Amino acid sequence: LIGETIGDLFDRIASEYATNDALVSMHQGIRWSYRELQQQVERCARALMAIGVEKGDRVGIWSPNNAQWCVTQFATAKIGAVLVNINPAYRLHELEYALNQSECRFLIAADQFKSSDYTAMLNKLVPELAQSAPGKLITPALPHLNGVITLSDTPAAGFMSWQQMLDQADNSSVDALQERQSELQFDDPINIQYTSGTTGFPKGATLSHHNILNNGFFVTESQRFTDQDRLVIPVPLYHCFGMVMGNLGCVSHGATMIYPSEAFEPDSVLKAVAEERATALYGVPTMFIAVLEHPTFADYNLDSLRTGVMAGATCPVEVMKQVIEQLHMKEVQIAYGMTETSPVSTQTGAEDPIDKRVSTVGRTQPHLESKIIDSLGKIVPRGEIGELCTRGYSVMLGYWNNEEATLNAIDSAGWMHTGDLATMDDEGYISIIGRSKDMVIRGGENIYPREIEEFLYTHPAISDAQVTGVPDKKFGEELVAWIILKPEADLTEQELRDYCKDKISHFKVPRYIKFTDAFPMTVTGKIQKFKMREITIDELG
Ligand code: ATP
Ligand code: MG
Question: How much is the ipTM here?
């Protein structure tokens, strides 16, 4: 394990690989070497100190992917501030919740994103903003907030622009920064990340330098990263996939971070891989599908790719085969984890056979432990289903300002109870069965929706299928399937029922079938089954 703070690691790597490309932000036309990135980071760190950011202060960032995000990440780490990642898709209500829940003192906000005007939104939330001097904000709506830094070049009244913030660096010395950095401990909190909100309201996981720095390192170590690797990061930086597995994964090896666009766009990914001769690519399965199916796919030379990570959800076998063959990612890996464990706890290896990469999420990462337990907390026999628990360096410090939730999640022996159902085979490979919250109990029978989804997926007319349970008077719960058909495909409810007959047990045949164009999703592309349930319950009356 690396026993350094993120600031110290960053400085060490930046001097060792000074001339390597550190960051390419394609949509901004930015290309910085490690030396250049370090200059930016140091300037930003001094500026943040000059505007009054103390050790432990929360600094929110509400922005899509860009170079400023990366600079802020390492600058806040150097001065011991706690970066609060705020989803750029959040709107006022959610932003207010995150800022108040984490008691942010400063906010760095994008200018525009997906046709939303962030300045206008903020002025609506905080009418006092326009009347206050930058850094002197007093507002009842956000009692902890002192100032807002906007990524706009022309800041509205009350806002400080990114450049105006950087200019403050002259009011804080290099010595002061070094002194601050030397006071920090690697187990200090450094980051609050909200969970995706797949199963309910997002919770803020408080993570330390040690948590995320080591996780980033081991995720790319297992992909055999060196300082020659060039990683395309189309996944959001506000999520651990981008900022830990992406940014910290690269920085810990002196590798190159490549941002193709503000938010995922398949064509920008293809262009980034081809033009930058990328060696690695990240994504959730739906992103890989979108890239593979994109009409311009054949126009690009992608043979520089070697590895990458697919995570966040299970990957269909066909998609895995295409990623290996058509995207040349022979060493592509599957990773499993959660925000609360920094995030990755299991990963397949570069040489694992393809069946392990589609049917399992690999083995436990170095320096971590996994166990699978029954409802009484006893370890189940190999191959049997139970709740997966993780222990080790990666387990979060706790949920921010939510001791009750922390005590529910992490037990007194340090095990994080993931809420995921899984099995472990004799060789230690773990398979995720689904979330315990998504398991359906119909007439006393445990049903794992994923099994039915995979079966439905075998129907040639079906593009995607999601199964969940809804309350039922007679059986306790009944199954409902939401189906997305392939373009031009035609399928009736009755035809689908006939297809299921004699292939799966009668009690696994969904009672309700709904044809749809889309599933309710988080911005990370995860399907929110609790919303599917709510919608179906509404529709059934
Ligand atoms: P919330 O906790 O707010 O409901 P969330 O659990 O989706 O949202 P994250 O921390 O982003 O928030 O996601 C972690 C979860 O994602 C895991 O608990 C697991 O259910 C799922 N997951 C992660 N990786 C994989 C994978 N490789 N295969 C299947 N599921 C995965
Ligand atoms: Mg979760």
Answer: 0.99
